[in-house]
Structures are given as structure tokens and as C-alpha cells.
Amino acid sequence: MQLTGYEHLPPQRLDATFAALADPTRRAILARLATGEASVTELAGPFAMSQPAISKHLKVLERAGLISRGIDAQRRPRRLETTPLAEANQWLEGYRKIWESNFQRLDAVLEELKTEKKPRGRK
Amino acid sequence: MQLTGYEHLPPQRLDATFAALADPTRRAILARLATGEASVTELAGPFAMSQPAISKHLKVLERAGLISRGIDAQRRPRRLETTPLAEANQWLEGYRKIWESNFQRLDAVLEELKTEKKPRGRK
User: Fold this and answer.
1) Percent of the residues in chain A that have a pLDDT greater than 90, as a whole number
2) Per-residue confidence at B121, pLDDT binned at 50, 70, 90?
3) pTM for the full predicted model
4) What is the residue-wise DSSP string for B48-110?
5) Which of B1, B35, B89 comes nearest A89 by C-beta?
């Protein structure tokens, strides 16, 4: 099977994106920013974490290009950047055919089991 | 915007999946296994890497549930497991609406620029 559609991506970008996504706090920050811009204080709010700890996570997200800073110089709000998410999704889509055919195979096995259970007509 | 469809996933699973995917060698191993089962020796072949180094990567992939071992006790071939890929894809799909609306907004801006350039009819 040929996997296509992600070869043009620089591998370091995917490394940074996947590494940034491998943390529940960072994924929660992205989920919060999906509802709109937020300052560091606003982002730190829902987490039992110090502002420096949140800032560390924000730096990882920023380096991966997953967030950027809004124009308000006072609040310096963070904003979600979706291009790396679309790229990571594109890489995973290369495997969709395989997982879908695996699921179909499982369905076929279940269907076969159902058919075997059906009582046969007697002659 | 509400993100839905991934809340039921244990966060540790997504952590392990994304961390395992954050390495080009591990992604290349998965791409190789997408074409069929392979032994450790066969997997080490295309990489300028020792077998222990490859084994380390395989352990990370195995712990994340991205690969399993085939039934041949001699070759112990590794096999791709796609469920974690489908789960990671599902998490990313929660953001699809946002990146698609961003792309649409960009399209709209480009369209507007084109319209502005059109010469106006004179009276």
C-alpha cells in the first residue's frame, strides 16, 4: 500500500507538532484557545499550575507554531494556529485506508459469525 | 466552538501515541509496516542504525500500542496496529472546522482582492 500526501512536510515540523500534542495540559490549552484568544493569566486560570509552568507549555506550543500572539501589546493574548494540526491530520490520513480496512475486516468476521449461528433449513 | 468526539479517550493513550509519533525514524518504521509485517532485522535494514537502537524505537511504538508481534516465534515479526492512529486522528478532527474556516477566510480575502482589482465600468 502506498501512503501519499504528507511527503512534502519537513519532518522536524511533524516532530515538533506531535511532541507538543503529547501532553494533556497543552492539549487543554489548545482546546481553550479553540474558543477564542486568551491571555496567559486567563489560560492559567483553570489549571492548578503556576504562571511560569503554564508559560513553559506555551513556549513549547509557540515553538511548534500551534499558537501565536495577538496584537494587544498589554494582554499579549495567545491565539490558536491550526496549520500544524491540519498537517498532522494529513499525515495520519495516510493510514486511514488501513484502519478502515481493519475495521471492515472485523465487521466481516462478525457478520460471518452471525450467519453461522442462523439455523439451516432441513430437507 | 465546541470540540467533540474525543473526550472518552484516556489522555495517557493520546500522550503515548503523540510522543511515539514525534520521531522521524518511528514514523518511517510505521510507514514500512503499513506495507506488511517485518522482522527487526528487516526493519533495521533501511536505517543507518544498530539493531539495539531500532529495538528501542520499537519498544516505544509497542508501549503506545502502535505495533504488535506476529505469531511466528522465530522471526517475531512486528505488525502495525492502527487503532491509536485512528484515535489521534479523531482528536485532530475536532479542530477540522476551525482550520477549514481559517482557510475559507483566507480564500474570501483573496477573492476580495481580485474583485478590487477588476476595472469598474465608466458612466
Assistant:
1) 55
2) low
3) 0.82
4) SS-HHHHHHHHHHHHHTTSEEE-S-TTT--EEE--HHHHHHHHHHHTTHHHHHHHHHHHHHHH
5) B89
